[in-house]
Write the structure tokens for this entry.
Amino acid sequence: MLDRSRKFVRLISLFALIITLTCYGGMQSAPAQAGRPTSAQSGTLPPGVEKVASVEGFTEYRLPNGLRVLLFPEPTKPTITVNMTYQVGSASENYGETGMAHLLEHLMFKGSPKHTNIAQELTEHGARPNGTTSTDRTNYFETFQANDTNLDWALDLEADRMVNSFIAKKDLDSEMTVVRNEFEMGENSPTNVLLERILSAAYLWHNYGKSTIGARSDIENVPIERLQAFYRMFYQPDNAVLVVAGKIDEPKTLSLIVGKFGSIPKPARVLPKIYTVEPTQDGERAVTLRRVGDTQAAIAVYHIPSGLHTDYAAINILTDILGDTPSGRLYKALVETKKASSVDAGTIGARYPGVAVFIMEVREGNSLEEARDILLETVEKAAAKPFTSEELERARTAELKNIDLVLNDTERIGLALSSPIATGDWRLFFLNRDRLKAVKLEDVQRVAAAYLKPSNRTLGLFYPTKAPDRSEIPPTPDVASIVKDYKGAEAASVGEAFDPSNANIESRTHRFSLPSGLKVALLSKKTRGSTVMAQVRLHFGAEESLRNLNVTANAAGSMLMRGTAKHTRQQISDALDRLKARVSVSGSSAGANASVETQRNNLDEVLKLVAEMLREPSFPESEFEILRQEWLADLDQQRSDPQARAIKETQRHMYPYPKGHVRYNATLEEDTEEVKGLKLDAVRKFYKDFYGGSNMEVSLVGDFDENAVSNLIKQLFGDWKSPHAFARVPSLYFDVPAINRTIQIPDKSNAVYSSAENFAIRDEDPDYPAMVLGDYMMGGGFLNSRLATRVRQKDGLSYNIYTVFIADSWDKVGVLGIGAIMAPQNTTKVESAIQEEYNRALKDGFTPEEIASAKSGFLLSRQVSRAQDASLCSKLVNYLYLGRTLAWDAEFEKKIQALTSEQIVTAMRKYFDPKKVTIIKAGDFEKVK
């Protein structure tokens, strides 16, 4: 499970800047039951509204103006997600307009007549918002606390900016440089750029060959008139799908939507149709990229049918079989043989024919050409080696598990529907799941033979051939005929309407301790899909006993999921997929952690497997060698990564613990040498000397039987004793001198700013609440903080700027950190703007309106966080260690609510001194000179 999850994250991060671009890092209702339609579904619809279809709790309506509305009432969490998807993306851009769909997405946050400061409103309502652009769609979403006021506001916002957004020249002038900075961020990753180049070679004519971020020249020069025309053409109700999911009253919400959107007229224009069809590829294509970096990479892509085609499900299974870690054929052929440090595979596809992608990374010193040949041999001769039922079922189980877990989370499913909407219809989400269930071995064999051919490949080289063997891509099917009679499966079970207030959580939480030292916190409640979250924390060692053992400790923790006395790494992965569980087990010199997401009926078996990984790891030698190679490759990559280098240098200066200390910040070179010299015997010895349950906490939140779980925890961990006593290693305050240092990293378009100042403060101190709220106003919220408003919104210098204030719960150790990315030539401007904004705050303070808005947004965001079971579970387990309850949170929030401007400014002046701030900048500054 862990490696499959890493695979997904790695692919998404790689494709993000090419395929999907992000704009920025209660009401009571009864659940709709199968066979029991709500009043909105039973015929009493608003005039002119048509019910289109119902599938597994989701119901689609269509307004007279063409707007499609998808409602999903789900009372489990006290939140609502509003997601507006427009069926337009970078595939609809014309010559000179690349990146325009994404640029327009940014401008949609600049305001409309009724909502002139969208960023401010989002923060005031405690929303978790964003917008994303892809090849075939753009979406805008907000998740917020469920109540009539918030829902009315969110729907009014989306209705107004649908047709009334300013899309003004002044906003384009400032936001263009922000988007250009985002473009530069993508240019920092050689692998990201390599995939961009490959896709541009794979597609001769279709816009799927152009990255969604666009060409730099188009970003810089697109006329505002073309953006406005693009907006008027595509941002209309007949080209949009509105999803509202969460704690809603369906009839009431539908009526509210009609009131907000019904008056928008159906446009008279005809939407342009994309009629360009990519011709059949007639020979191998090659791309070579030469840039600064430390890890070699190769990517091969092959054309495949549209996401609408029946072959698409079998192709997804095929890429899993080939690219999965650790069961995949590529992993066994390349990683286990040490020819490559990592491999991956996936598909890029939507409404039109896409590609299957196969990726590998190879450490410097190893032969890229040899690894390339093995990759191509494994992929293109896959059909010659018959696939097995075990391979098919493992891949199918993993795919279906991820779908089930998405369906069990209202926010995730509300957002996940944007992709099938882009492909043509939201019901494709469920139809694709059913198609995955129906895939047979012969289907996988057939698609491998049909599409994984040399003549259908784009790689880094070109080889002519006298006898082309081409892959004919089937035409895109008609989506209406595909989904016309589709009914779907039974909707997932619903949970209770849970109040996430501090008082209610505290009243529902049961805590107890065992004689062994184990502490437990349990919060049982009904959840959608009977999901349950669990957290396990171990503490071990002491300052002296842990000396010089950082790397060894990290290795021991990283080996916990790679094999036990009873199960291999592959068997663990298969078991977690079968149990529909997301599990992460890891450790370091600070202790060990396990996080679990599963379902009620699988909880016992999952917890037993987690206990087995913690108590009976086998430390197989083959896995240890793979781990070392992965670790070294990661360290290699960090050498040319401006962000990694800036953060590393900041930490080393701010926390100068002596070498050997458990908190020592090693250099990349020191870490590399230690990893190279690390021995498996030392790792096994560390586990034997330190791991035990005498200082352990366990928390669970979700649908479970409290008595049964309590007994199981006692059975699994009650007799586990630690070999040695645990003594918390104190954190030290360092009054370090301020420095301003530049790290030169060649051939990087994007630079990184990192600054910090240490404080002698802990979270129990009287000034702590004032410092927290002051930091929130300076660098928190959604684009309306002091720094975001100045550096991003006004000056257009940075895509991402943030602050973070942390104070320890045990020791008087705190830090204020500030981070930003920018073009190297804008570094001085960013640095000056940050200093000016802090000087202004220290001199003039904050307005009453600013403080009131910050209090509201900050407190609402905490409530939204408590409504997320995973976040709540982590808080409960952390509080067991700290000896706290949520009464601490309630008191803290009272202090926040009572803060005055004078208290905030006094605290900031007391602790923050601009002259003591350490600043580290990393990037290619010589190129600018």
User: Anything to note?
Assistant: The mean pLDDT is 93. Residues 169-187 form the longest helix (19 residues). The radius of gyration is 28 Å. Residues 604 and 712 are 7 Å apart (CA to CA).
